[in-house]
Amino acid sequence: MRLQSLMPAKSIAFCVLLVLQGRHSAFAIDGYQAPPQSAAPAKDTIPADTAITDAPKQVEALSAFRKDGKANIRALGFTPFITGQQYVKGQLAGVYVQEPSGEPGTEQNMFVRGIAMPLLSKRELFDNQAAVYLNGVPLAMDNPFAYEIQQYDFNRIGPATNLLSTLNIDNIESIEVIKDPARLVQLGPVAANGVIWITTKAASSGYRKISINGYFGFAPQQQVTPINAVYENKFRLPFYDKFGTLNDRFNYPAYLKDSSNADYYGPSNWTDLYYKNKPLYNIDLSLTGGSDRANFRFFGAATRDANTADETALQRYNASFSINVLPLSWVTVSSLINATHMMRNRNRNFVDRLAEVRYLPDVSNPLPPNKNVYQSYLGEFDENVKDDNTTTSVQGYFNILAQMKGFRYNGGISFDYNEGTRDVFYPTQLLEGNNFVSNYFGFNQRFVFNNALGYTWQVNADNKLDFEAGQNYQTTLNKFNYAYGYNGPNNFIKLNIVEGDPNQATYLQSTGFDVFYHPSNQRVSVASFFGKADWNYKGLLDLLAIVRRDGTSVMQPDNRWYTGFGASASWNLHKTFLQSSSLLSALDLTASFGRNGKLLSDDRFAGGPNYRSDLSWSGAPTIGSYAGLPGLSRPYNSGWVGYGIPWAYVQTASVGIDAGLLQDQLHIGLDVYQRSDKDMMLPVPVPAESGYKSAYASGMEVANTGVDLTVQGTVLKATGHKPGLSLFGNVNYNENKLKALPNGLQRVVINDHLLQVGERIDAFWVYKNEGIYATNAEVPVNPANSRPMSFQGAPMQAGDARWKDMNGDYTINEDDKVLLGNSLPKITGGFGGQFNYRALTLDFHFYFALGHKLLNKYAAQRLDFINTDATASIDGVKEISWWEKKMDLTTYPMYNPWSNTIPYRLDQDLFLDKASFVKLRSVTLSYNLITGWKGTGKSQVFKQATVYLTGANLFTITPFKGDDPELVQYNGIYTGAGLPIQRSFILGFKVDL
Amino acid sequence: MIGKKIATASLTALLLTGTLPFTACNKQLDVNSTRQSDEANSWKTIDDARSGLMGIYGLFRAAVADNNAHWLYGELRDGDFTALKRPDLKAIIEGKLNASYPIIESISNWRRFYAAINACNLFIERSADAMVDTRYTEVNHKVDVAQARVLRAFLYYYIVRIWGDVPLLTQSYDNGKFQQFARSPQQDVLGFAVREVEDAAPLLPYVYGGGDPVLPGQVYHTKTYTEWKNTLINKVSAYAILAHITALQGNYYATAGYTDFVMQQYSRISINYLSVADLTGKTGIFNEQAADLATDQNQFISFNFVKGLGEATVSGHIEQLTLAYPLVSKQQPDIYITNDSLASMFPTGNGQDQRFGVDTSSVDQGTPTLYRNAYITGYGEEIPIFSKIKSINGGIAGEQQFNVFTSAILFTRLEEIALLRAEALTVLGHESDAITLLNNIRSRRNVNAFDPAAPGADLLKEIFEERRRELVGEGWRWYDLVRYHKIKKEDPAFNALISTGGIYWPVAREVLNSNTQIVQNPYWK
What we know:
Chain A is mostly beta strands.
């Protein structure tokens, strides 16, 4: 009797399918990115006793369900990475990960095979993310609707902790990507953007097995070039000498005026307090065991990730428990509960703090670079500031599989619940004598109900048919309560206290703070029905067809349901024609097609035209009343919604070939795909006289075309005293193109984006810079009316930038902006390898992103200091890290910073920099004590014992002149505000008892 | 095998519960958004009508508050303020309205005004539906619609002042089709506005919730007289608007008529002349519906920001631009009136002007030691702070930490209407009546009476100079200059500006991009 660990129904369905496929070894091309089993890793484990190796076989069969690439879990187990995105970075062909800041636990982005729609805001960023399934449960993420009440979208309100930081690598069996269109159709609309499929280590029967893993290490202090006012003064004076007036000098910033001010002109040693050596660790333990009819697994872990900068850290505790029970011989019941608790120490940046406070104090003088002054600022954080961020997440499921005479039923209930709380108090000292309190509680809750019936019909020896029909219902609730208050009585009262006397007129009104309260919630349900048929002929040919119908509450009643379908075929060419080939050991040809509905992440479309609270303006985003009475209006700012919105859908076709050469020593997988996302909605600008900023219209189509290539080979086979070497690599080439816009439009301008049919959707829209007008005489004059070249009507003068007049009308305006570059890389991937000699193993992994650009806002703001200093917006806020030289600015031309044409404006190719990079992600040297210690290869106590040393993020190769081309916001803008992706060194061990 | 039976039974139960959602799922998919009201649930109750009406006021307020636009349009250009550091404000002051600063681009866009106009149109068309709710009476509905009509006219007047010719939309076109409309001649737009207010004003009550003949009862839309005061458009304010529209048309005959109505009836809405203390106090006329003033109402037309109602904001107030230390924690103001400008605004006649006056006889080392400075904090310093309006966080005494403001965007008050009437009468040749009005204001500010016999006396000029002194910081200066020069026609440069359309703002590119029928103002082409 064997036990089977269960996943929710749909996955089971696939699993069964793949069990069928798996019988033919050529089909089960699983994990071909991991080093071949013949290579070194086997040496890390000693041959286990039979009772244990027998039991989990079924489990392996499940996880060996063919995906489209698998992360190298073994090597990841030696690294200090903590988030799902970090695990897959550079590991899976076609999966691109953005890490805009190295701050532990902050949000990271993950795209599979490009993006489906332009990244205009955090909403679209959310809508483009790949779905993550944990043991078949699609994880619920933070919905971006919270940004509606925010003035700035730097961070989401609340703890804003990356919800994929919950995953501990030591509890993960496999991380895979699903890109195959037909299989994504099987998973339904949630999976429209591609899927990262994570499977935790399963319970297994046998004598109890204990694994203990641990590491300890540190993130070394970052070495940077601090600057002080002398530097800034020297940088600015030439501009004053060349272009400034007496009045401009009079307005010279106060902190730079007085060169005897030691705070600014003295030593710049703030870095001693900002960058520090920081410890990081992980310790975890797992316990597995059980009998023939029941088994279990427990996992517990404590992890700390820290960044060298600004005392940022993430503390995490994991606990996981799973059981499999066989109550009847034909029924398996499986259950898992997985809990994580995380606490995050956030950065102490001004911008992040002021964005939370949404109140801008006077920021004309930056914090001085002097250690002593900075210490007193930090002292406030130690003494009075409260910033508690906790995130707790629980996932679990209860699944049943019943099998009898070819029939099977599987069903179950899964849930994912995660909640975040953030309690903030900023004392008067930090906010001009004014204090601030905010409290956030929010959760995302998802329930999934599955039922599926299947039947396998072995028609004859050659033909096998498998049918399945099923249903899935998923409901997700996102909710938050958020309140903030200003101007409390003092720094000791950090709570909002209300009047408690019901007889008072002010009953329940705040007595201390001026309080604003924002509750919000959104519920989305998806119901699905599907049917699937699979025909397998002799294990040579496998044909799969699936059709599904999905309905969701976010669509209007007349367009509530959508029919998705897909088909795929695999043909084992090797077995059919080439069994005698000495060169080829495997050759498979696959083709797949799928059309899958896409879900909307916002519930505002289901009701058609609507009325909402839209009375706010840019400086006051949360005003919803007039004279204290709620005011409703058409959604003038957020955009008109009409009727007849069709489902958006993604249609993908791919063809792939997988080949094994030289007795499987070399594996090559190549996939060519064409993904079209169609009928998507876009807020299209409408005549301003309608009052609307935009109207939502369907019809946007974006195509992503590309190639995924994975190669993996054994260069040297380790035998006895000979060293072994295996190498692997993956690369994705992806091009996106806007195929159509709603209403047949050819181009649309939305904020600073131009979307033009036929062009990329992530292109920058910029002026072409061609130098400088050194004198007024150099400014071209329009022969038609003798007027000089102008910028939107304002004549150009000496000291202005020479922007290319694309249309030759002697006026530089939007019409002269061009689409250049792209913010998403064209080529992404990673490569690495494993070298082993006896008990020593060396793993290394590089990742790269090539062919993309960034818009250097850091340089633009530094050079445009006149406008940056004068601006009344949060863009003018200077962090302590403003006193760090991130790049050399002397190579830029010297324009007149006072000019009304804003020569250092960001939207010009002067600030478009190459952002390609190759990075060494990790290097691990591990030593197997079992085989190494006296070379016995046997131990009475330990089944496995390995010690290792890992260095992470060791170096970067890039043409970019700033600090790190990876620290770029999702839209390709580099501000220099991201905390460094830290270098770290850890020493660890892995022991199995 | 009892154990097996139990297991089978419990499994069967589980399978059944598992299939439950199967049947109920379609119903489960009807989920209403909690963050909006869908079409199907709208215009059904009195609450919908009230929310719609408040929506109009709120959108109007948002349009004039966004980026402090009310002052950026009206106060800065060629005005008395100087920008300290901000280049965008400096460009506006210098009339470089095509400078490429984000704020200038943003306020060149008239969309927010049209949002409020569309809301008016929609309310006029749809609010009658809400009368299915018997609580929403005919009388109530009539008054609501009258307000919407006056507000729409007022909005058109407001944008004609800024852009000249603007598209005239009198229907909501609420069908998702988004037609393009060209600009209508401003005289057509103003003509429409005049007719609308003339029609609607008689339907409006003098007071809300105060037992008005047009609107009986002590409660209007859940609020009483004291709660509504200085908040909604009433009959007198409608005629005040009419007076201004006709003045913009140059129809001073009509202006004289409408201002006459206002001057006759203002006491019916409990309005009176203000003392300088009431004008400039922290809890004076500007603060929170002028709740702390002795008279009940004092603002003819205003958009209030009441702290207790959760509407205190940082932006949307002139204080955000003008105040600085020691009144608030900000170190330096964005804009200020230089000492030289102060001297020219407030000539030293007798030095007794209660708003601002300098006694030139008391000079110590070149600086006057005796002065009245109700408008100014820190006179004599390099950067005097304009502190006529300073409603900080509800006007709490001593408040300087928390820089949210609660001052109203005040469109007009009695002094302003009196001066407008004096202007109209002067143009019409009734100079003695105009002098009486002017001197009434002047005596209240302790300024010497205007003497027509004095050499070089220029009544019209004096009226506008008085407006400049009295209304500084209330968003009038630029429009006053335009009217003055339209009457006087003395300044060739300004005449050229008027004839070429340079007195208007350019239209934002965003507006031009989304409507091919709109052409840029020729001056800014």
